[in-house]
């Protein structure tokens, strides 16, 4: 691997600011023959702790892969609204997209990368961490510069800012004096409690009246779960919101599904401003940590506003499973249903509707546990490998077989019905089939459209009747009011 001067400078500056190397400690997965306590004796002087996998370089975090998406708003107020409303979904999507259970050749007891990269970019000194009294530094800082958001930006979100917001008081006052409201001012002033950790020689002396590079230097090295992005000067680019939590997936289809879901959610948020998904920042922080739990989609509960769509009703922040949040439960309309209602209002053709149904089926079935996350799939592959010794250790052979199989899945050479929805698998097999007939595919799409419309009408999505076709199932959304079946001549 070749490293350019930028990441080398970045990692060096983080070490120098901390006055020591980074210390990333991730709990190890305790299997039957895992050493207890497991200790990395060579790393103990550098901060390794028992029963944790220790990593001592920023590359362990910044080497992780993620999926990030940016949405442009029509104006600053719309961008602030999207930012606040999307926040509740950052831990939900983090859990659904989890794909990072292995570190340093050991199986860990977390499923996603977030805490790893947060620790790898943590440049706080002992004083800022609260480990020693403030003497040379100005603040105690509760989070790494890579972490979840600290405050909301709209009036609707003000009362949910229930954690102390550490901010640069001088910059905060300067912003207020120049007409910036207090919510946005404290958001910007919070960014400036950090020191620059990288800079370009040619950008040191610039015209700050016409160039925002000095601001972006700080903004772009505060890696929060959402990023509120200002318009660049002299550019047609507007106010934007970046959604930053998802792990990268095995296939383009899965990545497209998450991008589509979040994109549709932004549309729903924009076109129905009465919806309110905001939860207290303290609960949001808890949700981010819960998303790391192995198989969090099935085993964890997350704080969510159960009254998100009840205008005038008080917020009802309760713990719910991801299945309940996404697929709904008694007296609660799930997000998948909300997506379909929005899709049904749009003027889209049958082919696009069919594609969207595949994406929604992935999210729906991951949420209820019928499909597994990439992280769970990796765990199952490792623990069922004949060379695995139930000691949490991943050998070279296990690693090779794992990566080879993932490559085949990514290249659509093999399909796993526990990982990908049958609607997608059948589409791919149909296209590969020698008997592929585009007219027949259009006929199937038209039938699926009828099923989805009926399911929407009755405010729920029920999938049942399946037919076995060349070792794969074609599943359609179906309820007792719909008798149509789909048959594919693979």
Automatic annotation (TrEMBL):
Top-rank taxon, per record: Eukaryota
GO BP terms, alphabetized: glutathione biosynthetic process
SUPFAM superfamilies hit by this protein: Glutamine synthetase/guanido kinase
Pathway: Sulfur metabolism; glutathione biosynthesis; glutathione from L-cysteine and L-glutamate: step 1/2
UniProt-listed InterPro entries: GCS, Gln_synth/guanido_kin_cat_dom
Keywords: ATP-binding, Glutathione biosynthesis, Ligase, Nucleotide-binding
Record keyword Protein biosynthesis present: no
Enzyme type, top EC level: ligase
GO molecular function: ATP binding; glutamate-cysteine ligase activity
Catalytic activities: L-cysteine + L-glutamate + ATP = gamma-L-glutamyl-L-cysteine + ADP + phosphate + H(+)
E.C. numbers: 6.3.2.2
Stated family: Belongs to the glutamate--cysteine ligase type 3 family.
Protein name per UniProt: Glutamate--cysteine ligase
Biological source species: Intoshia linei
